[in-house]
Structures are given as structure tokens and as C-alpha cells.
Amino acid sequence: MIQRWRLLWGGALLLWLASPFYSQQIDDQLITLAYAWSLATEGLLRWNGSVVEGYSNFSQLALLAAGVRAGLDGALLSKGISAAGGLAVLAVADRAIPATAEGTLLFLALALWPPLAFWTLGGMETTLFAALVAGGWAAALRGRAGAAAGLLWLAAVTRPEGAAFWAAGIAWMARARRDPAGRRAVIAAAGWTGAAMLLYQALRVAYFGAWLPTPVLVKGVGAAGGWAGGIDRLERLAEDLATAGAIAGAALIGFDLRGRWAAALLPLALCAGLALSTEPDWMGHGRLWLAGVAAAAAGAGIC
């Protein structure tokens, strides 16, 4: 019975755990709302009248702009999008993870993971990005090339690091599919999503005149203090690994990942690289790990 209704009680539990964070106000959320208001009212992406790309979450910005133009409250809508993203993460996991005692342990580890609750009502794109990556990764492991490439492309226009998950998903499918029809499907999916990604990048570079979004330049390696975090960086990484490790550990209990364990846990490796290449104070609370943890949990269930 618990396994049968786990998505329902898991979602209710997540929203209950997330409720204390509903009132939090994050600066980056307000920045995105300012750009969304500019796009909705003027048809331009401006920051105080200046042409500068101070955001890195275009898909969420576009959704907010559409809502504002329709007369909705942007701040409330942003909370709704992040809540839908958090529930979608659990929905992807529930569909991918077997309804067994071991599977429910993995599902419970994800539903109770504090970062998921923190971001579910935070109004940021974190849970939307995680849901897209998890859904795309699950589709890739199932061999559904079109769905995988499409979801991971949407992830790439939701956060810049989504491009790494897209590339990894395409590479995995190209390696895993041995039949000619399957490989043709992967090539086709890679072609249209790759073209869409190049078009998006060309448009943003032409509009802003910069190869990388300003937040990436500020927070990435090479920026002031990039690798100077020292002990702070190691402490943050240790904290993140401790929490992400609970998910990985739950995935390994009762699951025979065989030769595909690397594919299931690869998203965590991508997140580790990201955590090492950014400033240690980039919001924390598992923000850089959430997508990888959700994708790894779904992947473990499928494998």
C-alpha cells in the first residue's frame, strides 16, 4: 500500500517540509522577475534600461514573462513553477523506481532530502531544471531519443550547465543503441536539438554581445576568488557530498546496476565537476547537486 501511494504521500510530505521556506526572498529571483517584467511590458530584456545578461535561466524567465503579460502575479507564479518542478522531480522518480521496499527507500531518500524541500517553494529555477534533467536522463536510459534530447535541450536553456547533461545523454544513447534504427533516431534527435541550441546561443550572443552569461563569468573559475575559496570550498564540497551520498547509498541498496551503474550515477559526477568549478558561496543548499541527485535516483531505478 505504501509503495502504491508513495507519490501522493511523498508529494504531500515534500510540500509540508517546503512550507517554512515559502516566505524566503532570494535576490536572484527578484532579478529574474525584473527581466520578466521588462520582457512582458516592453518586449526587451533590460536591467534598469541597460543591455546586460544578468540572468542564466531563460526558460523560467520566459514563463514568468508570459504570466505577467497575462496579468498574473510574477512572484506568486515563480513559487508555483518551483513547486511544480519539485513535484515533477518526485513524479519522474516514482515512475522510474520499482515499487519495491528497496525502491521505496530510494524514493523516500529523495523526497526527504533537505535541498529538494528548500528549493521547492523558493521561486528559483532549481527544481524546474532538476525535473527536466531527471526526465531527460530517464528517457535516455530507456532509449527514447527524441524525448531525452528534447527535455535535456530544455534543461540547457534553463541553466547553462544543462548543455553538459544534454551532451552526456546524447553520448550515452549513441553508445548504447546498437541497432541501425536506434542510432538513426539518436542522430536525428541530436541534430534538431543541437541546431536549436546553436540558434539559441547565436541569438543571445547577438543580443548581448557576450559568449557566456554574466552570472557564469562572475561565479565560474577565472573570476575573482574562483579557486581562492580554499578551505571554504572543501567544506562546502564535503557538505554537498555527504547529502548527495545518502541518495547514492540508497540507490546501491537492493539494486543490481551491473554494467550501467556509471550511466545511472554519471549525473552526480557532472555535478561534482560543477561544484569544483564555481565559487563556494553560490547559494548552497544543494543547488548545484539537485539535478544530478534527481537524475541519478531515477537512473538507478531504471537500471
What does this entry show, briefly?
This protein has 303 residues and is an all-alpha fold.
Query: What string gives the helices and strands in order?
Result: HHHHHHHHHHHHHH
**What's the shape?**
globular
Total number of helical segments? 14
Average pLDDT, all residues: 83
Which assembly state applies to the chains in this document? single chain
Structural class, by secondary structure, is mainly alpha
Number of E-type strands: 0
Ordered list of secondary-structure elements with their pairings:
Blueprint: H1 6-18, H2 27-42, H3 58-69, H4 74-96, H5 101-111, H6 114-120, H7 126-141, H8 145-156, H9 162-176, H10 180-208, H11 214-219, H12 231-252, H13 261-276, H14 290-302
Write up what this structure looks like.
The longest helix is centred in the middle third of the chain and has 29 residues, at 180-208. 43% of the residues are buried. It is built from 14 helices and no strands. Mean pLDDT is 83; it is low at 221-229 and 253-259. It has 303 residues and is an all-alpha fold. α1 packs parallel to α5, α4 runs antiparallel to α6 and α7 runs antiparallel to α8. It has helices at 6-18, 27-42, 58-69, 74-96, 101-111, 114-120, 126-141, 145-156, 162-176, 180-208, 214-219, 231-252, 261-276, 290-302. Helix content is 70%, strand content 0%.
